[in-house]
């Protein structure tokens, strides 16, 4: 088989048709919904640790105790509506963008010796996937963060829900206010997505028996690979995530940008503040992302079976 035909075979395998694009889009959305249902309490805990004044909480367990005492168990799902409303487009765009980025890599490297992408190429596709995804992620997370920090003693407006948040933000500063934190989101999700998808693909290959296709892995292996991907992402994403949370939750004018937020955070709370929320983020990383990829792969199999 020639190099060109090998690349063409890979292109066909990864899907260039409209049907394959739709499959990637919808499957990503299903995976995202699974991730939110499993991971939101961990995410709320992380965000409150990152944004609360020093001394508010003694740690992640204290966040949970205070939240449940004040709002009941349902308080752990405060702010869940924005990610649930936005999760389908966020994850749908992410997984669609990832598949399109892989296809792009094949197209710009026609004289390949192998149709298998390298670890660096998987990482590059993951990084590229974060760029269009930010258009959806940034405003959804802006609303989510504001709802999550509400009720922990901070001043500022009190919102009745996600639509009230968006209405207030737009009235306050237009589209710019709604999209505050976009730079921090890209700086978090670019490297994070590179690690995320590369770790998933590498782990799948390691778990695949000789002569078998990674796409035929059982669900247990998918869960392990997905959980590993989540751990890989959050191992490097916490510092920009801390800054993103602070930028998105602070009153207008508090920070002039990402670097200003980093400087003021370190000056006020020390370098260790950049790793606030690491515990709950890592606790969430495995189960939430195992659920994500389980949802993605299971929905793809349903597509293949019935469509």
UniProtKB/TrEMBL annotation:
Membrane topology summary: Multi-pass membrane protein
GO biological process: carnitine transmembrane transport; mitochondrial transport
GO molecular function: O-acyl-L-carnitine transmembrane transporter activity
Gene Ontology, cellular component aspect: mitochondrial membrane
Keyword Ribosomal protein: no
Solcar repeats mapped onto the chain: 19-104, 117-206, 217-302
Subcellular location: Mitochondrion membrane
The keyword Membrane belongs to this UniProt entry's keyword annotation: yes
Taxonomy, superkingdom: Eukaryota
Keyword tags: Membrane, Mitochondrion, Repeat, Transmembrane, Transmembrane helix, Transport
Family matches, as InterPro entries: MCP_dom_sf, MCP_transmembrane, Mitochondrial_Carrier
PROSITE patterns for the chain: SOLCAR (PS50920)
Family per similarity comment: Belongs to the mitochondrial carrier (TC 2.A.29) family.
Protein name per UniProt: Mitochondrial carrier
Protein's organism: Meripilus lineatus
């Amino acid at each position: 088989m020639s190099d060109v035909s090998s690349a063409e075979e890979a292109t066909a395998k990864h899907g260039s048709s409209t049907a394959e694009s739709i499959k990637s889009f919808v499957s990503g959305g299903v995976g995202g919904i699974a991730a939110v249902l499993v991971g939101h309490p961990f995410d709320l805990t992380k965000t409150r640790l990152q944004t609360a004044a020093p001394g508010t909480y003694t740690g992640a367990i204290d966040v949970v105790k205070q939240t449940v005492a004040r709002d009941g168990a349902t308080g752990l799902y405060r702010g869940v509506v924005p990610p649930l409303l936005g999760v389908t487009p966020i994850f749908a765009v992410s997984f669609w963008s990832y598949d399109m980025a892989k296809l792009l890599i094949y197209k710009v490297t026609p004289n390949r010796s192998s149709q298998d992408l390298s670890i660096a190429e998987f990482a590059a596709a993951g990084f590229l996937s974060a760029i269009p995804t930010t258009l959806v992620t940034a405003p959804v997370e802006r609303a989510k963060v504001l709802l999550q920090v509400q009720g922990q003693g901070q001043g500022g407006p009190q919102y009745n829900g996600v639509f009230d948040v968006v209405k207030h933000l737009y009235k306050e500063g237009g589209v710019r206010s709604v999209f505050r934190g976009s730079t921090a989101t890209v700086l978090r999700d670019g490297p994070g997505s590179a690690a995320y998808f590369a770790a998933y693909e590498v782990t799948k290959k390691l778990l695949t028996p000789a002569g078998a296709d990674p796409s035929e892995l059982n669900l247990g292996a998918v869960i392990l690979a997905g959980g590993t991907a989540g751990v890989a992402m959050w191992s490097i994403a916490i510092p920009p995530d801390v800054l993103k949370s602070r930028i998105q939750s602070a009153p207008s004018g508090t920070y002039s940008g990402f670097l200003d937020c980093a400087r003021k955070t370190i000056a006020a709370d020390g370098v260790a503040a950049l790793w606030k929320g690491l515990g709950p983020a890592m606790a969430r990383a495995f189960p939430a992302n195992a659920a994500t990829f389980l949802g993605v792969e299971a929905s793809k199999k349903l597509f293949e079976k019935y469509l």
